[in-house]
Amino acid sequence: MQNDIKLFTELVDFLLDEEVNNPVATPIDTDKLYQTIDIKLNDDPVIDADFKSTLKQIIKSTPKTASTSFFNQLFGGRISRATLGDLLAVMLNNSMYTYKVAGVQVGIEKEILKNVCERIGYPSSCDGTLAPGGSMCNYMAMLMARDHFDTTIRYQGVSKQLIAYTSETSHYSITKNASFIGIGRDQVRSIKTNAKGEMLVSDLQEKIEDDLEQGYAPFFVNATAGTTVLGAFDDVTAISEICKAYGLWLHLDGAYCGSVIFSEDYKHLVAGVEHTNSFSFNAHKMLGTPLGCSIIVTRDKAHLYQSFSNDADYLYQTNDDLFNLGKTSIQCGRRNDALKLWTLWKSIGHKGLEAIVNHQFYLAEVAREYIKEHPDYQLYSFDNSISVCFNYKGIPAKTLCTKLYEHSQLMVGYGTFRDDTFVRLVTINTQVQKEDVLRFFKTLESFVETENL
Predict the structure, then answer these.
(1) Which of 20, 33, 24 is nearest to 403 (CA)?
(2) pLDDT, tens digit, for every residue of 246-257?
(3) 343, 366, 392: which is the final residue of a domain?
(4) Model confidence over 82-99: pLDDT tens digits?
(5) Tell me, what CATH number does 192's domain have?
(6) Residues whose CB falls within 8 Å of the CB of residue 131, separated by 6 or more in sequence, listed in order
(7) HSE-up (13 A, CA, CB side) for residue 105
(8) Same domain, residue pair 102 and 161
(9) If we measure between CA atoms, which residue out of 333, 306, 364 comes closest to residue 155?
(10) Are 280 and 258 spatial neighbours (Cβ–Cβ below 8 Å)?
Protein backbone atom coordinates (compact mmCIF):
# COMPACT_ATOMS: atom_id res chain seq x y z
CA MET A 1 0.00 0.00 0.00
CA GLN A 2 2.78 2.45 0.89
CA ASN A 3 4.41 1.94 -2.50
CA ASP A 4 1.18 2.75 -4.30
CA ILE A 5 0.67 5.85 -2.16
CA LYS A 6 4.15 7.01 -3.18
CA LEU A 7 3.29 6.30 -6.81
CA PHE A 8 0.02 8.20 -6.42
CA THR A 9 1.88 11.22 -5.01
CA GLU A 10 4.30 11.13 -7.93
CA LEU A 11 1.43 10.94 -10.41
CA VAL A 12 -0.38 13.85 -8.74
CA ASP A 13 2.76 15.97 -9.04
CA PHE A 14 2.95 15.01 -12.71
CA LEU A 15 -0.70 15.99 -13.21
CA LEU A 16 -0.24 19.37 -11.52
CA ASP A 17 2.75 20.11 -13.77
CA GLU A 18 0.74 19.11 -16.83
CA GLU A 19 -2.10 21.42 -15.85
CA VAL A 20 0.33 24.34 -15.80
CA ASN A 21 2.50 23.47 -18.80
CA ASN A 22 -0.08 21.75 -21.02
CA PRO A 23 -3.46 22.98 -19.76
CA VAL A 24 -5.33 21.69 -22.82
CA ALA A 25 -4.43 18.07 -23.53
CA THR A 26 -3.69 17.14 -27.12
CA PRO A 27 -6.76 15.20 -28.23
CA ILE A 28 -6.44 11.70 -29.65
CA ASP A 29 -8.73 10.71 -32.51
CA THR A 30 -10.96 7.83 -31.52
CA ASP A 31 -9.73 5.71 -34.44
CA LYS A 32 -6.16 6.07 -33.12
CA LEU A 33 -6.82 5.74 -29.38
CA TYR A 34 -5.89 2.10 -28.90
CA GLN A 35 -2.80 2.44 -31.06
CA THR A 36 -1.59 5.55 -29.22
CA ILE A 37 -1.78 4.40 -25.59
CA ASP A 38 -1.48 0.84 -24.33
CA ILE A 39 -4.75 0.50 -22.43
CA LYS A 40 -5.32 -3.14 -23.41
CA LEU A 41 -6.05 -5.67 -20.66
CA ASN A 42 -3.84 -8.75 -20.96
CA ASP A 43 -3.42 -12.18 -19.36
CA ASP A 44 -0.02 -11.36 -17.85
CA PRO A 45 0.77 -8.52 -15.43
CA VAL A 46 2.63 -5.44 -16.61
CA ILE A 47 5.95 -4.57 -15.03
CA ASP A 48 5.96 -1.61 -12.65
CA ALA A 49 8.02 0.71 -14.89
CA ASP A 50 5.68 0.17 -17.85
CA PHE A 51 2.67 0.55 -15.59
CA LYS A 52 3.86 3.96 -14.35
CA SER A 53 4.76 5.07 -17.88
CA THR A 54 1.29 4.16 -19.15
CA LEU A 55 -0.38 5.98 -16.27
CA LYS A 56 1.59 9.12 -17.10
CA GLN A 57 0.56 8.84 -20.74
CA ILE A 58 -3.07 8.53 -19.66
CA ILE A 59 -2.75 11.60 -17.41
CA LYS A 60 -1.10 13.58 -20.19
CA SER A 61 -3.86 12.75 -22.67
CA THR A 62 -6.84 13.22 -20.35
CA PRO A 63 -8.72 16.57 -20.58
CA LYS A 64 -7.56 18.84 -17.75
CA THR A 65 -10.83 19.87 -16.11
CA ALA A 66 -9.04 21.77 -13.34
CA SER A 67 -6.91 23.92 -15.64
CA THR A 68 -7.68 27.60 -16.15
CA SER A 69 -8.24 26.92 -19.87
CA PHE A 70 -11.23 24.65 -19.17
CA PHE A 71 -14.56 26.41 -19.83
CA ASN A 72 -16.31 23.54 -21.55
CA GLN A 73 -18.76 21.97 -19.10
CA LEU A 74 -20.89 22.85 -16.11
CA PHE A 75 -18.13 21.82 -13.70
CA GLY A 76 -14.41 22.37 -13.38
CA GLY A 77 -11.57 23.41 -11.14
CA ARG A 78 -10.25 21.77 -8.01
CA ILE A 79 -10.65 22.88 -4.41
CA SER A 80 -8.07 21.16 -2.22
CA ARG A 81 -10.22 20.76 0.92
CA ALA A 82 -13.00 19.10 -1.10
CA THR A 83 -10.49 16.85 -2.84
CA LEU A 84 -9.12 15.90 0.57
CA GLY A 85 -12.56 14.72 1.63
CA ASP A 86 -12.99 12.65 -1.52
CA LEU A 87 -9.61 10.97 -1.07
CA LEU A 88 -10.47 10.17 2.55
CA ALA A 89 -13.79 8.69 1.43
CA VAL A 90 -11.92 6.37 -0.93
CA MET A 91 -9.54 5.25 1.81
CA LEU A 92 -12.33 4.75 4.37
CA ASN A 93 -14.48 2.94 1.78
CA ASN A 94 -17.76 3.02 3.69
CA SER A 95 -21.07 2.24 2.07
CA MET A 96 -23.74 4.72 3.09
CA TYR A 97 -26.80 2.48 3.33
CA THR A 98 -26.66 1.60 7.05
CA TYR A 99 -25.43 3.23 10.22
CA LYS A 100 -23.72 -0.01 11.21
CA VAL A 101 -21.27 0.16 8.28
CA ALA A 102 -20.99 3.94 7.88
CA GLY A 103 -21.19 5.24 11.44
CA VAL A 104 -20.30 8.92 11.82
CA GLN A 105 -20.36 9.32 8.03
CA VAL A 106 -24.15 9.04 8.22
CA GLY A 107 -24.21 11.93 10.67
CA ILE A 108 -22.07 13.98 8.28
CA GLU A 109 -24.50 13.41 5.42
CA LYS A 110 -27.51 14.19 7.59
CA GLU A 111 -25.87 17.41 8.81
CA ILE A 112 -25.46 18.55 5.21
CA LEU A 113 -29.06 17.71 4.37
CA LYS A 114 -30.36 19.49 7.48
CA ASN A 115 -28.44 22.66 6.64
CA VAL A 116 -29.64 22.63 3.02
CA CYS A 117 -33.26 22.22 4.11
CA GLU A 118 -32.97 25.05 6.63
CA ARG A 119 -31.34 27.28 4.02
CA ILE A 120 -34.24 26.91 1.58
CA GLY A 121 -36.96 27.22 4.21
CA TYR A 122 -38.32 23.67 4.29
CA PRO A 123 -40.28 22.57 7.40
CA SER A 124 -38.98 20.13 10.02
CA SER A 125 -40.70 17.24 8.22
CA CYS A 126 -38.11 17.44 5.43
CA ASP A 127 -35.25 15.13 4.54
CA GLY A 128 -33.13 14.18 1.56
CA THR A 129 -30.36 12.04 0.18
CA LEU A 130 -27.35 12.12 -2.11
CA ALA A 131 -27.70 10.67 -5.59
CA PRO A 132 -25.28 9.77 -8.43
CA GLY A 133 -26.11 12.90 -10.43
CA GLY A 134 -28.63 15.56 -11.34
CA SER A 135 -30.47 13.24 -13.73
CA MET A 136 -30.96 10.74 -10.93
CA CYS A 137 -32.22 13.49 -8.61
CA ASN A 138 -34.79 14.45 -11.22
CA TYR A 139 -35.76 10.80 -11.55
CA MET A 140 -36.27 10.46 -7.81
CA ALA A 141 -38.37 13.62 -7.73
CA MET A 142 -40.58 12.41 -10.55
CA LEU A 143 -40.95 9.00 -8.91
CA MET A 144 -41.98 10.55 -5.57
CA ALA A 145 -44.47 12.76 -7.41
CA ARG A 146 -45.96 9.74 -9.18
CA ASP A 147 -46.33 7.77 -5.94
CA HIS A 148 -47.77 10.79 -4.14
CA PHE A 149 -50.35 11.24 -6.89
CA ASP A 150 -51.42 7.59 -6.77
CA THR A 151 -50.18 5.36 -3.95
CA THR A 152 -51.33 2.19 -5.76
CA ILE A 153 -48.89 2.61 -8.65
CA ARG A 154 -45.99 1.12 -6.69
CA TYR A 155 -47.84 -2.21 -6.54
CA GLN A 156 -50.24 -2.21 -9.49
CA GLY A 157 -48.44 -0.12 -12.08
CA VAL A 158 -49.56 2.96 -14.01
CA SER A 159 -53.19 2.78 -15.09
CA LYS A 160 -53.85 6.44 -15.89
CA GLN A 161 -52.36 8.75 -18.48
CA LEU A 162 -50.13 10.80 -16.19
CA ILE A 163 -48.81 14.11 -17.54
CA ALA A 164 -45.61 15.92 -16.57
CA TYR A 165 -44.58 19.47 -17.52
CA THR A 166 -41.18 21.04 -18.08
CA SER A 167 -39.84 23.94 -20.11
CA GLU A 168 -38.52 23.54 -23.64
CA THR A 169 -35.07 24.54 -22.35
CA SER A 170 -34.95 22.16 -19.38
CA HIS A 171 -32.62 19.20 -18.98
CA TYR A 172 -33.17 16.20 -21.25
CA SER A 173 -33.37 13.88 -18.23
CA ILE A 174 -37.01 14.83 -17.64
CA THR A 175 -38.27 13.11 -20.78
CA LYS A 176 -35.84 10.22 -20.30
CA ASN A 177 -37.04 9.72 -16.73
CA ALA A 178 -40.66 9.74 -17.87
CA SER A 179 -39.98 6.49 -19.69
CA PHE A 180 -38.27 5.03 -16.62
CA ILE A 181 -41.22 5.68 -14.29
CA GLY A 182 -43.66 4.18 -16.77
CA ILE A 183 -45.63 7.20 -17.97
CA GLY A 184 -43.87 7.48 -21.34
CA ARG A 185 -41.88 10.25 -22.99
CA ASP A 186 -44.89 11.42 -25.01
CA GLN A 187 -46.65 12.37 -21.77
CA VAL A 188 -44.17 15.16 -21.01
CA ARG A 189 -45.47 18.55 -22.12
CA SER A 190 -42.86 21.04 -23.35
CA ILE A 191 -43.68 24.49 -22.01
CA LYS A 192 -42.76 27.55 -24.06
CA THR A 193 -40.13 30.00 -22.83
CA ASN A 194 -39.38 33.69 -23.22
CA ALA A 195 -36.31 35.17 -24.93
CA LYS A 196 -34.15 34.31 -21.91
CA GLY A 197 -35.24 30.68 -21.81
CA GLU A 198 -37.50 31.12 -18.76
CA MET A 199 -40.69 29.08 -18.56
CA LEU A 200 -43.86 30.93 -19.59
CA VAL A 201 -46.29 30.39 -16.73
CA SER A 202 -49.25 31.30 -18.93
CA ASP A 203 -48.41 28.45 -21.32
CA LEU A 204 -48.02 26.06 -18.39
CA GLN A 205 -51.48 26.86 -17.09
CA GLU A 206 -53.01 26.60 -20.56
CA LYS A 207 -51.52 23.16 -21.16
CA ILE A 208 -52.60 21.89 -17.73
CA GLU A 209 -56.18 23.00 -18.38
CA ASP A 210 -56.16 21.42 -21.85
CA ASP A 211 -54.99 18.10 -20.39
CA LEU A 212 -57.63 18.17 -17.67
CA GLU A 213 -60.30 18.76 -20.30
CA GLN A 214 -59.00 15.73 -22.19
CA GLY A 215 -59.35 13.59 -19.08
CA TYR A 216 -55.62 13.22 -18.48
CA ALA A 217 -53.96 13.31 -15.06
CA PRO A 218 -51.42 16.13 -14.57
CA PHE A 219 -49.13 15.28 -11.63
CA PHE A 220 -45.68 16.90 -11.92
CA VAL A 221 -44.03 20.18 -12.90
CA ASN A 222 -40.28 20.58 -13.27
CA ALA A 223 -38.84 24.09 -12.91
CA THR A 224 -35.19 24.89 -13.59
CA ALA A 225 -32.61 26.96 -11.71
CA GLY A 226 -29.97 27.46 -14.36
CA THR A 227 -30.95 26.09 -17.77
CA THR A 228 -28.21 24.11 -19.48
CA VAL A 229 -27.50 26.55 -22.31
CA LEU A 230 -28.40 30.08 -21.23
CA GLY A 231 -28.37 29.56 -17.46
CA ALA A 232 -31.90 30.91 -17.02
CA PHE A 233 -33.94 30.72 -13.81
CA ASP A 234 -37.64 29.90 -13.94
CA ASP A 235 -40.04 31.95 -11.81
CA VAL A 236 -40.54 29.48 -8.97
CA THR A 237 -43.04 31.62 -7.06
CA ALA A 238 -45.39 31.99 -10.02
CA ILE A 239 -45.06 28.34 -10.98
CA SER A 240 -45.72 27.24 -7.40
CA GLU A 241 -49.03 29.10 -7.41
CA ILE A 242 -50.11 27.17 -10.51
CA CYS A 243 -49.03 23.88 -8.93
CA LYS A 244 -50.90 24.65 -5.73
CA ALA A 245 -54.05 25.56 -7.65
CA TYR A 246 -54.06 22.27 -9.57
CA GLY A 247 -52.56 20.01 -6.91
CA LEU A 248 -49.31 19.23 -8.78
CA TRP A 249 -45.91 18.27 -7.38
CA LEU A 250 -43.30 20.98 -8.03
CA HIS A 251 -39.66 20.02 -8.36
CA LEU A 252 -36.90 22.60 -8.80
CA ASP A 253 -33.99 21.21 -10.77
CA GLY A 254 -31.05 23.30 -9.56
CA ALA A 255 -28.36 20.92 -10.81
CA TYR A 256 -26.49 23.73 -12.55
CA CYS A 257 -27.16 26.83 -10.45
CA GLY A 258 -29.17 25.75 -7.41
CA SER A 259 -26.14 26.54 -5.25
CA VAL A 260 -27.19 30.19 -5.35
CA ILE A 261 -29.01 29.28 -2.13
CA PHE A 262 -25.65 29.90 -0.42
CA SER A 263 -25.37 33.51 -1.65
CA GLU A 264 -27.16 36.47 -0.12
CA ASP A 265 -26.63 38.37 -3.38
CA TYR A 266 -28.07 35.73 -5.68
CA LYS A 267 -30.47 33.56 -3.70
CA HIS A 268 -33.30 35.75 -4.99
CA LEU A 269 -32.91 33.89 -8.29
CA VAL A 270 -34.64 30.90 -6.65
CA ALA A 271 -37.17 32.90 -4.65
CA GLY A 272 -40.09 30.64 -3.83
CA VAL A 273 -37.98 27.49 -3.46
CA GLU A 274 -39.61 27.02 -0.05
CA HIS A 275 -42.90 26.32 -1.87
CA THR A 276 -41.51 23.40 -3.88
CA ASN A 277 -42.09 19.76 -3.02
CA SER A 278 -38.50 18.83 -3.87
CA PHE A 279 -35.28 20.59 -4.77
CA SER A 280 -31.94 19.36 -6.05
CA PHE A 281 -28.51 20.77 -6.85
CA ASN A 282 -25.06 19.51 -7.80
CA ALA A 283 -22.30 20.54 -5.42
CA HIS A 284 -19.80 19.39 -8.06
CA LYS A 285 -20.92 22.29 -10.22
CA MET A 286 -21.07 25.72 -8.60
CA LEU A 287 -19.47 24.64 -5.32
CA GLY A 288 -16.59 22.87 -7.03
CA THR A 289 -16.49 19.55 -5.19
CA PRO A 290 -15.11 16.57 -7.13
CA LEU A 291 -17.60 14.62 -9.22
CA GLY A 292 -20.14 13.59 -8.25
CA CYS A 293 -22.00 15.23 -5.41
CA SER A 294 -25.72 15.63 -6.10
CA ILE A 295 -28.28 16.39 -3.42
CA ILE A 296 -32.07 16.09 -3.45
CA VAL A 297 -34.31 17.19 -0.58
CA THR A 298 -38.07 17.00 -0.16
CA ARG A 299 -40.49 18.88 2.08
CA ASP A 300 -41.83 15.67 3.59
CA LYS A 301 -39.51 12.74 4.26
CA ALA A 302 -42.54 10.42 4.13
CA HIS A 303 -42.29 10.56 0.33
CA LEU A 304 -38.72 9.24 0.44
CA TYR A 305 -39.80 6.25 2.54
CA GLN A 306 -42.93 5.70 0.48
CA SER A 307 -41.02 5.47 -2.80
CA PHE A 308 -37.65 4.00 -1.81
CA SER A 309 -37.87 2.07 1.45
CA ASN A 310 -37.94 -1.71 1.49
CA ASP A 311 -37.39 -4.14 4.36
CA ALA A 312 -34.17 -6.15 4.39
CA ASP A 313 -33.23 -7.77 7.69
CA TYR A 314 -29.82 -8.81 6.40
CA LEU A 315 -28.94 -5.11 6.01
CA TYR A 316 -30.76 -2.99 8.56
CA GLN A 317 -29.50 -4.26 11.91
CA THR A 318 -29.71 -1.08 13.96
CA ASN A 319 -32.98 0.21 15.33
CA ASP A 320 -32.96 3.86 14.27
CA ASP A 321 -34.15 3.96 10.65
CA LEU A 322 -33.43 7.69 10.51
CA PHE A 323 -29.75 6.71 10.36
CA ASN A 324 -30.19 3.84 7.92
CA LEU A 325 -29.85 5.87 4.74
CA GLY A 326 -30.67 2.97 2.44
CA LYS A 327 -34.28 3.45 3.50
CA THR A 328 -34.45 6.78 1.67
CA SER A 329 -32.12 6.13 -1.25
CA ILE A 330 -32.70 4.57 -4.63
CA GLN A 331 -29.44 2.64 -4.28
CA CYS A 332 -28.42 -0.08 -1.89
CA GLY A 333 -24.62 0.12 -1.74
CA ARG A 334 -23.63 3.76 -2.13
CA ARG A 335 -20.24 5.48 -2.00
CA ASN A 336 -19.68 8.34 0.42
CA ASP A 337 -20.20 11.49 -1.63
CA ALA A 338 -21.03 13.65 1.38
CA LEU A 339 -17.61 13.80 3.01
CA LYS A 340 -15.99 15.95 0.29
CA LEU A 341 -18.72 18.58 0.59
CA TRP A 342 -18.50 18.44 4.38
CA THR A 343 -14.68 18.94 4.41
CA LEU A 344 -15.12 21.92 2.10
CA TRP A 345 -18.05 23.42 4.01
CA LYS A 346 -16.51 22.76 7.43
CA SER A 347 -13.17 24.33 6.47
CA ILE A 348 -14.45 27.51 4.79
CA GLY A 349 -17.89 27.95 6.37
CA HIS A 350 -21.09 29.36 4.90
CA LYS A 351 -19.26 32.55 3.97
CA GLY A 352 -16.67 30.60 2.00
CA LEU A 353 -19.34 28.82 -0.04
CA GLU A 354 -21.00 32.17 -0.68
CA ALA A 355 -17.69 33.59 -1.95
CA ILE A 356 -17.31 30.67 -4.38
CA VAL A 357 -20.78 31.30 -5.85
CA ASN A 358 -20.38 35.09 -6.02
CA HIS A 359 -17.01 34.77 -7.77
CA GLN A 360 -18.60 32.90 -10.67
CA PHE A 361 -21.14 35.66 -11.27
CA TYR A 362 -18.32 38.20 -11.07
CA LEU A 363 -16.34 36.33 -13.75
CA ALA A 364 -19.42 36.16 -15.97
CA GLU A 365 -19.81 39.92 -15.67
CA VAL A 366 -16.13 40.38 -16.60
CA ALA A 367 -16.74 38.28 -19.73
CA ARG A 368 -19.95 40.09 -20.70
CA GLU A 369 -18.33 43.49 -20.31
CA TYR A 370 -15.40 42.44 -22.48
CA ILE A 371 -17.78 41.25 -25.19
CA LYS A 372 -19.82 44.46 -25.05
CA GLU A 373 -16.67 46.57 -25.41
CA HIS A 374 -15.39 44.74 -28.50
CA PRO A 375 -17.48 45.11 -31.68
CA ASP A 376 -16.26 41.85 -33.25
CA TYR A 377 -18.33 39.96 -30.68
CA GLN A 378 -22.09 39.40 -30.52
CA LEU A 379 -23.56 38.70 -27.07
CA TYR A 380 -26.54 36.38 -26.65
CA SER A 381 -26.75 35.97 -22.89
CA PHE A 382 -27.88 38.24 -20.08
CA ASP A 383 -27.22 39.33 -16.49
CA ASN A 384 -27.53 36.87 -13.60
CA SER A 385 -26.21 33.96 -15.65
CA ILE A 386 -22.83 32.25 -15.48
CA SER A 387 -23.24 31.02 -19.06
CA VAL A 388 -21.78 33.68 -21.33
CA CYS A 389 -22.92 33.04 -24.89
CA PHE A 390 -21.41 34.87 -27.87
CA ASN A 391 -20.12 34.66 -31.42
CA TYR A 392 -16.92 36.15 -32.79
CA LYS A 393 -16.56 37.70 -36.25
CA GLY A 394 -19.45 35.62 -37.54
CA ILE A 395 -17.39 32.42 -37.37
CA PRO A 396 -19.67 29.40 -36.88
CA ALA A 397 -19.49 28.49 -33.20
CA LYS A 398 -19.13 24.78 -33.85
CA THR A 399 -16.18 25.40 -36.16
CA LEU A 400 -14.45 27.75 -33.73
CA CYS A 401 -14.88 25.51 -30.67
CA THR A 402 -13.77 22.41 -32.57
CA LYS A 403 -10.64 24.09 -33.94
CA LEU A 404 -9.68 25.46 -30.52
CA TYR A 405 -9.99 21.94 -29.11
CA GLU A 406 -8.12 20.21 -31.93
CA HIS A 407 -5.22 22.66 -31.64
CA SER A 408 -5.09 22.36 -27.82
CA GLN A 409 -5.81 26.05 -27.29
CA LEU A 410 -8.98 26.14 -25.19
CA MET A 411 -11.71 23.79 -23.97
CA VAL A 412 -15.01 25.56 -24.63
CA GLY A 413 -18.29 24.32 -26.03
CA TYR A 414 -21.15 25.69 -28.08
CA GLY A 415 -24.89 25.77 -27.55
CA THR A 416 -28.11 26.48 -29.42
CA PHE A 417 -31.19 28.46 -28.47
CA ARG A 418 -33.99 28.74 -30.99
CA ASP A 419 -32.32 29.72 -34.28
CA ASP A 420 -28.96 30.80 -32.85
CA THR A 421 -25.82 28.74 -32.24
CA PHE A 422 -23.05 30.33 -30.21
CA VAL A 423 -19.95 29.75 -28.13
CA ARG A 424 -20.91 29.03 -24.52
CA LEU A 425 -18.28 30.20 -22.05
CA VAL A 426 -19.08 28.80 -18.59
CA THR A 427 -17.50 30.64 -15.65
CA ILE A 428 -18.05 27.81 -13.17
CA ASN A 429 -14.40 26.67 -12.96
CA THR A 430 -13.36 27.38 -9.38
CA GLN A 431 -9.71 27.95 -10.37
CA VAL A 432 -10.41 30.76 -12.84
CA GLN A 433 -9.63 34.39 -12.06
CA LYS A 434 -10.30 37.63 -13.97
CA GLU A 435 -6.98 37.42 -15.81
CA ASP A 436 -7.86 33.90 -17.00
CA VAL A 437 -11.12 35.13 -18.54
CA LEU A 438 -9.31 37.95 -20.31
CA ARG A 439 -6.63 35.52 -21.49
CA PHE A 440 -9.40 33.31 -22.86
CA PHE A 441 -10.52 36.07 -25.22
CA LYS A 442 -6.97 37.00 -26.22
CA THR A 443 -6.17 33.36 -26.96
CA LEU A 444 -9.32 33.02 -29.05
CA GLU A 445 -8.60 36.20 -31.00
CA SER A 446 -4.96 35.29 -31.61
CA PHE A 447 -5.93 31.81 -32.75
CA VAL A 448 -8.51 33.14 -35.23
CA GLU A 449 -5.97 35.54 -36.67
CA THR A 450 -3.22 32.92 -36.91
CA GLU A 451 -5.45 30.27 -38.49
CA ASN A 452 -7.26 32.75 -40.79
CA LEU A 453 -10.64 31.43 -39.77
Answers:
(1) 24
(2) 999 999 999 999
(3) 343
(4) 999 999 999 999 999 889
(5) 3.40.640.10
(6) 137, 140, 280, 294, 295, 296, 329, 330
(7) 25
(8) yes
(9) 306
(10) yes
